[in-house]
Design brief:
This protein is mostly loops. Helices cover 8% and strands 9% of the residues. The relative contact order is 0.16.
């Protein structure tokens, strides 16, 4: 993470945030993502693994009544 004008790192409250594409929850920047933050789409490995199941959007119940 880049340092501010005073040469200090930003406070945790000021870190960039994104919204997970699977669970739609906000998550904050992590140091391990410093080189690939623009490519990060999911908050965790679990959400990344479940992305295939959510490709069609939310599941809808079909009405089978005649």
């Amino acid at each position: 993470m880049a340092r501010n004008a005073n040469g200090k790192r930003p406070e945790k409250a000021n870190l960039p945030n994104k919204v997970c594409m699977t669970c739609h929850r906000p998550f904050a920047w992590r140091r391990k993502w410093r080189d690939c933050w623009d490519d990060v789409k999911y908050c965790s490995a679990r959400c990344r693994d479940h992305r295939e199941h959510n490709k069609g959007g939310t599941r809808r119940q079909t009405d089978t009544a005649p």
